[in-house]
Design a protein that fits this description.
The protein is an alpha+beta fold. The chain has seven helices and 13 strands. It has two domains: 157 residues, PEBP-like (Phosphatidylethanolamine-binding Protein), CATH 3.90.280.10; 124 residues, no CATH class. A six-stranded mixed β-sheet has the order 3-9-8-5-6-7, with no helix packed on it. A four-stranded antiparallel β-sheet has the order 10-11-12-13, covered by helices on one side. Strands 2-1-4 form a three-stranded antiparallel β-sheet, with no helix packed on it. Pfam families: PBP (PF01161).
Length: 288
């Protein structure tokens, strides 16, 4: 079985046919060089990357294509391939800034699942006029290469990118029983302001898990709702005295029942001396 990342990542097959790498392509996001199969966050790829093509002959020109074969979602890629960037006439030894930008760079904004973002480099035989496609979705790298007689790719790189949301449970210890009113809306809630308004002080424990956005959460979102509404969880908190450590591990147990424990992290306070106020540095991290 091939260990080539382009084969393992199905770049070869989904986007291009098998080819032999004959050029050195380097891609940098914010001065950090990416490698095949890198995991990058959407915030890391907001700005146009720097593209370097190593060589010695500036008369040799290249065409660079950047596509997303997983749009709008890997399970239903109806927009495959989505064109993020197209630059032609890039001289060897330079970067993409010296080329002719046909389609401006559009930063990746995956909405569901893990998306592959692929840079494909072609060596041009001549300088030629290349026209921008009418739209970005349903671009086809193979057809584009054939239309402009570019032949097989000479290099390719790809990275994975997904949007992750954090869901956080925060536990406060009340000094007294008091009336708490529901906010008028769910969005723009501020935990710090709520704690101050209700005189709750600092949290005594917290737990969070990660979840992909929209279709990436899919059934997991339903399991989250079931976990929060579970009779076991409600009965336990109503009938049992609880410490922060016990609360955190009970929460983890509930998440485990619903298959969510692999996404969870627990934070509980460490013992402090002289009654010092707890801050982020006083929390011990438990990984599961």
């Amino acid at each position: 079985m091939s260990r080539d990342p382009l084969v393992v990542g199905h770049v070869v097959g989904d986007i291009v046919d098998p080819f032999v790498t004959t050029a050195s392509l380097r891609v940098f996001f914010n001065s950090k060089e990416m490698t095949n199969g890198s995991e990058l966050k959407p915030s890391q790829v907001l700005n146009q990357p720097r593209i370097y093509i190593e060589g010695r002959d500036m008369r040799t020109l290249y065409t660079l294509v950047m596509v997303d074969p997983d749009a709008p979602s890997p399970s239903n890629p109806t927009k495959r391939e989505y064109l993020h960037w197209l630059v032609t006439d890039i001289p060897e030894t330079t970067d993409a800034r010296f080329g002719n930008e046909i389609v401006p760079y559009e930063s990746p904004r995956p909405t569901a699942g893990i998306h592959r973002f692929v840079f494909i480099l072609f060596r041009q035989s001549v300088r030629q006029t290349t026209y921008a496609p009418g739209w970005r979705q349903n671009f086809n790298t193979r057809d584009f290469s054939e239309l402009y007689s570019l032949g097989s790719p000479v290099a390719a790189l790809f990275f994975n990118c997904q949007r992750i949301h954090r869901f956080v449970f925060i536990l406060f210890r009340q000094s007294v029983r008091q009336t708490t009113y529901a906010p008028g809306w769910r969005q723009n809630f501020n935990t710090r302001d709520f704690s101050e308004l209700s005189s709750l002080g600092s949290p005594v424990a917290a737990l969070f898990f990660n979840c992909q956005r929209e279709n990436g959460c899919g059934g997991r979102r339903g399991r989250i709702r079931a976990a929060l509404n579970s009779e076991y969880l409600q009965q336990y908190f109503v009938t049992q005295p609880i410490t922060p450590m016990v609360w955190a591990f009970k929460m983890l147990g509930v998440l485990k029942l619903y298959g969510l424990d692999s996404y969870a992290r627990i934070y509980v306070p460490l013992p402090t001396h002289h009654g010092l106020r707890l801050g982020p540095d006083h929390f011990q991290k438990f990984l599961f």
